[in-house]
Amino acid sequence: AYKVAKSTFITGGNNRIILATDGDFNVGETTEKALDELISRERQSGVYLTCIGVGMGNLKDSKLQVLAKKGNGNYAYLDNINEAEKTLVQELTQTLYAVADDAVLNIEFNPAMVKKYRLIGFDNKKEALANNSVELEGGEVGSGNSTMAIFQITPTDMNVLTPNSAVAENIAEVTVRYSQAGDTLQRKMSCRVPNNFLAIDEAPKPLKFAASVSLFAMKLKNSPFATGEWQMVEDLARASADNNNFLQAEYLKLVETARKLYDDKKRKKKRKKGADE
Q: Pick from 197, 216, 238: which residue ends a domain?
């Protein structure tokens, strides 16, 4: 595939290999190490790699996300027609057309305002979170695509983060470094995060939805940080989900199912405890 891509290479064009597989590689380079080396070497030639996992519950995706990352590309998993339509029709430009390479987001918190913070998710990148400056590597950014990082913070003074707070200091500074597709020149832009606190009820719907998804994931992992109840997850989802968006509607159904399952489990545990006593 890389030989064909290089023989038909278009300068300034979207030169990309699309690998669709169930993850069970049985031709060519088959070891993860050999694949990593091949893709890391070929990414320098300007050929992107998009990996698409396909299947219905039988996907072997241990390699696909890593390979897409190595190839400065992206990854998607298609297990039904709706997901296929989303990835290959609705989000085609985001999937196939890169507008930035090697995008890196750097967030530096103001120690006068923020006592401690926690990046939600990224549990496998704890080494990157050693101090008050956290750097997240985003890789390729597709046309029209967006990325969200969610932090839980503890202010130095609880009165600092309140609606209409008189404290004017910035909470953090955000810097984005990137290079345009096909260019190696690093560009940078920065912005400051003002002390513009909003209660969750007043937050825009996309932020409410993101908060619900984050809490949902933490509840499923039994995270000690997930102190909110299941009903809170569902309430946030209902208040923010767009029922015309099949993914968000499907998410709401998942939340409802999980709440019922965990509530039943909780009730059974209480009954058992009462019987033992």
A: 197
On the 0-12 / 13-18 / 19+ scale of CB atoms within 10 A, 224 is exposed
Q: Give me the residues of the chain with pLDDT under 50, please.
A: 132
Tally DSSP H helices, then E strands, for the chain: 8, 9
Residue 139's closest CA among 61, 74, 77? 74
33, containing H or E segment: helix 32-42
Q: Are residues 8 and 86 in the same domain?
A: yes
Token pair, residue 50, equals 């998009």
Bridge partners, residue 191, by sequence? 174
The predicted structure's pLDDT at residue 164: 58
Same domain, 192 and 102: yes
Determine the structural domain holding residue 113 and report its residue range: 98-197
Signed CA dihedral, 88, 90, 94, 97: sign only? positive
Hey, what amino acid is at 254? Answer: L
- The last residue of a domain, from among 178, 197, 216: 197
Quick one: tokens of 84? 């296929």
Total number of domains constituting the chain:
3
Per-residue three-class SS string for 151-184: EEEEECCCCCCCCCCCCCCCCEEEEEEEEECCCC
